[in-house]
Every structure is written in C-alpha cells, then in structure tokens.
Amino acid sequence: MKNPESRPVLQWSAAMALSGTIGAVVLESGAAAPAVAFARCLVGGVLLVLWSLARGWFRDWRPTRRDLLLAVAGGLLLVGNWVLLFASYSLSSIGVSTVVYHTQPLLLVGMAAMFLGEKVGRSHLTRAGVAFAGVVVISLSAQGDDGQPVRFAGIALALGAALLYAGASFIAKQLKHIRPHLLAAVQLTVGAIVLAPALLFTPLPSSAPGLLWLALLGTVHTAVMYVLMYASIGKLPTTTVALLSYLYPVVAVVVDLLAFGHRLTWAEGLGMLAVLAAALAPQRAETRNARPGIPSRASR
Q1: pTM for the complete prediction?
Q2: Cα-flanking dihedrals φ and ψ of residue 143, to 5°?
Q3: Which end of the chain, C or N, has fewer beta carbons within 10 A?
Q4: What is the dihedral of CA 248, 253, 255, 256, to 10 degrees?
Q5: Category of 290 on φ-ψ map: left (φ > 0), alpha (ψ -120 to 50) or beta
Q6: What is the pLDDT of residues 67-91, one digit of tens each?
C-alpha cells in the first residue's frame, strides 16, 4: 500500500529546496533588495489571489477588523524581513545569511514567553546561547563570496530579518483560523502597496534577464512554493516538517558553494552547525508527540 505521506513529503521537500535557491535568484536579478521584495509581492500576490479566487476561497471569507489588522501587521513584518534578508546576501554570502537567519525559531519561542506568558525552559536558554555563540563564530571567521571577511552589517541584517520573521510567525499563530493561502495573498498585496514608493529610489532592473529572474522569484519561488507548502504541511507530522525544513539552509550553502565559489572555513562550518542544531532542537522538544499540525503559517 502506498504511504499516504509520500506525496506531502515530496511537496514539502520541493518547497524547502526551492527556498534554498532564493538567494541565488535575488543576486542574479541584480536588483536592490526593496525592488526584489516588491516584485516578489506583486507577482506572487497576484497569482495567489487568482488561485484563491479559482478555488472559491474568497467567497465565504468574512474577516473581522482584528483579523485584517493582524494580517496587515504580519504582512509589514514579512516584507520587512525579505528586504533585510535580501540586502544581507551581498554583504555576507547566501549561505552565511541563510544559516544566521535560522535563529528565528529561537526568537519565536522568546516572543511567546514575552507576550503570551509561555514558560521558557533552561534547555531553550542553553540552545539560544549555543545558537548565538555560533553566530559570533560565523561573524569572526566567515568569508564572503569575494574571499574577504563577511561584513558585520550582513550578519546584523540577517539577524534583523530573523527577528521580523519570528514576529510575522507569531502573528500568523493568532490567525490559524484563516486559510493560509488567503493570509499570504493579503500580506503580499500589503507588501506590494507599501514597497511601491521604494521603486522611485531602487527601480526594477531595466534588462530583460533581470526582470525574468524577478518573474521567476514571484512565480516559482513564491506562488508555486506556497501552494506546495500549504498542500503538504497539514498532512505531515510536525517533526517531519521541522527536519525537512533544514533542506533550506543546506541547499543554500550548496548553491553558495557551487554557483558562487564560497568556501567554508572550519570555524565557519562549526558555527553553522551550532546554529542549525540549536534551532532544530526546540522544534523537536515542542513536538515530541509528532502529530500533524501547522507550526507556522508565515511565508518564507
């Protein structure tokens, strides 16, 4: 008998692998971070709105004022996270930025403790210490794609992106009753509106290849990726989702190595392992009973 999880596993794995190639697409487009984020919001948002309309999901949706305000706030955090993350790539490297960015599960637990009164155990504090020690090691030892030490600004932007993404995830947890496709469509629409004025200062690429890279980002790495994510995440045990999510940074590091010639130092590799191990551990601890669920509905 065919394993009912095999299709969702392939869908989620494909989505995470696509996530790992986002950095390369961003750099190849040659556009500034705000313009890239705007293009992703515009193209991805239009396609998700059309997808939701075709499925009839807007027909019966009656959002409350609170839901709309939270969705808009989450959208602002989400697109802000993209702008910071995309900007960090050129100041450090795709692999370094992506791994540092994966401190966000630890930040999300901290937010839950601050705003929801959830207990933070000693093990979480230990993991947070290990993760940020790993970030320090990366900051001191990592090299950029040009062979020079990474700029601290790149690390800081990736950490800032992680903080904003954790905030978007925190808000998304308050909106679990909304179909995630609809939430993503609303948030991307908000992002396109907010980022449109930035085009006056950071315009879209004038070349056809640059525009094609941005079209690829909006279609495949946003709309298609979200459909794959949301079609699979609710059908898989949360532990499976957590483990397969680490395809994202692994693929990013491999792409950085093969496409941009980034070479890891042993200290940098050790720091990356510390961050990824520490970020993965809390998800395991939170989901020991491994049942299907949606840990976060915020978009990558």
Answers
A1: 0.85
A2: -115, 145
A3: N
A4: 140
A5: left
A6: 999 999 999 999 999 999 999 998 8
